[in-house]
Amino acid sequence: MSLPLPVPRPQPEETSSEAPISIEERRCNRCGSCLKLACGSIADVGGEALVIDEATCTGCGLCVQLCRGRAIGPALRLVG
Ligand code: SF4
Ligand code: SF4
Q1: Least CB-packed of 10, 12, 25, 75 within 10 Å?
Q2: pTM of the prediction?
Q3: What is the SS3 assignment for 13-67?
């Protein structure tokens, strides 16, 4: 099976969501699917956790759709 090609990070005017996106660590099984997007806003921190840079994330939702573990979503969802 071939890997998907890297997807350029969309520009802000192409996005549909203004909510910051975060990865809920306890739901992440580290399958690596989101990293295959090659989005510059998703980073593997020391091989221990995946994080999304909310300062550069455009909220395009591509990683949310890819994550079968539903570990990625709007940051506000994770509050409380
Ligand atoms: S796609 Fe989801 S479960 Fe897989 S590594 Fe990324 S955040 Fe974790
Ligand atoms: S929503 Fe996901 S794929 Fe889209 S810019 Fe943010 S981190 Fe990257």
Answers
A1: 12
A2: 0.74
A3: HHCCCCCCEEECHHHCCCCCCHHHHCCCCEEEECCCEEEECCCCCCCCCHHHHHC
Ligand 1 centroid distance, CA of 72 (Å): 7
Instruction: Give the N- to C-terminal CA distance of the chain in Å, as an integer.
Output: 40
Which ligand has the minimum distance to the alpha carbon of residue 69? Answer: 1
Distance CA 43, CA 46 (A): 9
Domain residue ranges of the chain, discontinuous segments joined by +: 33-80
Contact by Cβ (8 Å): 28, 63: no
Task: Report pLDDT digits (tens) over 2-57.
Answer: 666 665 555 544 444 455 899 999 999 999 999 999 999 999 998 889 999 989 99
